[in-house]
């Protein structure tokens, strides 16, 4: 650049000022564009002229404050006392109890599998008591590691985990001592 | 002569591009944008322009108005309507940034 020393700073200043104006100009244009997009979307979605509604029509949309109604004026506890027919077992159930009943009836809720498991365990124990006398020896050998399993009516998950852990530990010790 | 002129111009262009990049990287451009938007709303610029938009829409028809229509009608008026105080404040901040970060 062919410039003299003295005028360098002033030229750079004017250049800087020019850049600042350019940057401002771009920012203003961004703001205008933003507004255009906002307005265009409001027009196409149909809510641009919403605040121009007359006082008369506005009264249709006032908040409702009556007992038994929600803010839109709809009745909200209409189905409390109705009864529904279960599609699975064809029983007539009260509406508020319908969802929990369906869970158990279809076997799909969180608790229905637990209840089913519990029923299986109690069902097995009452069935197997007559047979266990004949297979006594086998039972004694089998039950060496599973302490208390034949005594407890409910075989809980923690007991099964304990049995597994004990088995693993024993195998590990076996291998270590045989090295 | 033409060769040196084009050299000068490309150097300016480079410097401008470098400054813009710095503005963006340091988050300053976003902050300036937000500041400008807030000031424009505060000063009633947005409401003025929105009223002008309503006229444009009524003229072009609600169904047929396009983004281009709005941009061509609104942007020049928008530029002109920015209050001087807002311009001054923004320029101050920009100059401060340039003073700090423009490598001369």
Automatic annotation (TrEMBL), chain A:
The domain of life for this entry's organism is: Eukaryota
Region: Disordered; residue ranges are 123-143
Set out the biological process GO terms recorded for this chain's protein: chromatin organization; regulation of transcription by RNA polymerase II
**Cellular location of this protein?**
Nucleus
Enumerate the GO terms in the molecular function aspect.
transcription coactivator activity; zinc ion binding
Q: Coiled-coil annotation: which residues?
A: none
Gene3D superfamilies recorded for this chain?
A: Classic Zinc Finger
Q: Where is it found, in Gene Ontology cellular component terms?
A: DUBm complex; SAGA complex
Q: Which UniProt keywords apply?
A: Activator, Chromatin regulator, Membrane, Metal-binding, Nucleus, Transcription, Transcription regulation, Transmembrane, Transmembrane helix, Zinc, Zinc-finger
Zn finger (SGF11-type) location: 84-105
Q: Where is the composition biased (Acidic residues)?
A: 133-142
Any Pfam family the entry gives: Sgf11
Where are the bilayer-spanning segments?
A: 161-177
Subunit record text: Component of some SAGA transcription coactivator-HAT complexes. Within the SAGA complex, participates to a subcomplex of SAGA called the DUB module (deubiquitination module).
Copy the domain comment: The long N-terminal helix forms part of the 'assembly lobe' of the SAGA deubiquitination module.
Q: What does the record give as the function of this protein?
A: Component of the transcription regulatory histone acetylation (HAT) complex SAGA, a multiprotein complex that activates transcription by remodeling chromatin and mediating histone acetylation and deubiquitination. Within the SAGA complex, participates in a subcomplex that specifically deubiquitinates histone H2B. The SAGA complex is recruited to specific gene promoters by activators, where it is required for transcription.
- Member of which family? Belongs to the SGF11 family.
Protein's UniProt name? Ataxin-7-like protein 3
UniProtKB/TrEMBL annotation, chain B:
Main location, first listed in the record: nucleus
HAMAP family noted in UniProt: ENY2_Sus1
What does the entry give for GO biological process? chromatin organization; mRNA export from nucleus; protein transport; transcription elongation by RNA polymerase II
Name the protein family: Belongs to the ENY2 family.
Q: Which UniProt keywords apply?
A: Activator, Chromatin regulator, mRNA transport, Nucleus, Protein transport, Transcription, Transcription regulation, Translocation, Transport
Q: Name one Pfam family in it.
A: EnY2
Give the Gene Ontology MF terms in alphabetical order. Answer: transcription coactivator activity
Q: Which domain of life is it from?
A: Eukaryota
Quaternary structure annotation from Swiss-Prot or TrEMBL: Component of the nuclear pore complex (NPC)-associated TREX-2 complex (transcription and export complex 2). Component of the SAGA transcription coactivator-HAT complex. Within the SAGA complex, participates to a subcomplex of SAGA called the DUB module (deubiquitination module).
Q: What is this protein called?
A: Transcription and mRNA export factor ENY2
State its location(s).
Nucleus, Nucleoplasm
What does the UniProt record say this protein does?
Answer: Involved in mRNA export coupled transcription activation by association with both the TREX-2 and the SAGA complexes. The transcription regulatory histone acetylation (HAT) complex SAGA is a multiprotein complex that activates transcription by remodeling chromatin and mediating histone acetylation and deubiquitination. Within the SAGA complex, participates to a subcomplex that specifically deubiquitinates histones. The SAGA complex is recruited to specific gene promoters by activators, where it is required for transcription. Involved in mRNA export coupled transcription activation by association with both the TREX-2 and the SAGA complexes. The transcription regulatory histone acetylation (HAT) complex SAGA is a multiprotein complex that activates transcription by remodeling chromatin and mediating histone acetylation and deubiquitination. Within the SAGA complex, participates in a subcomplex that specifically deubiquitinates histones. The SAGA complex is recruited to specific gene promoters by activators, where it is required for transcription.
Organism, as annotated? Oryzias melastigma (Marine medaka)
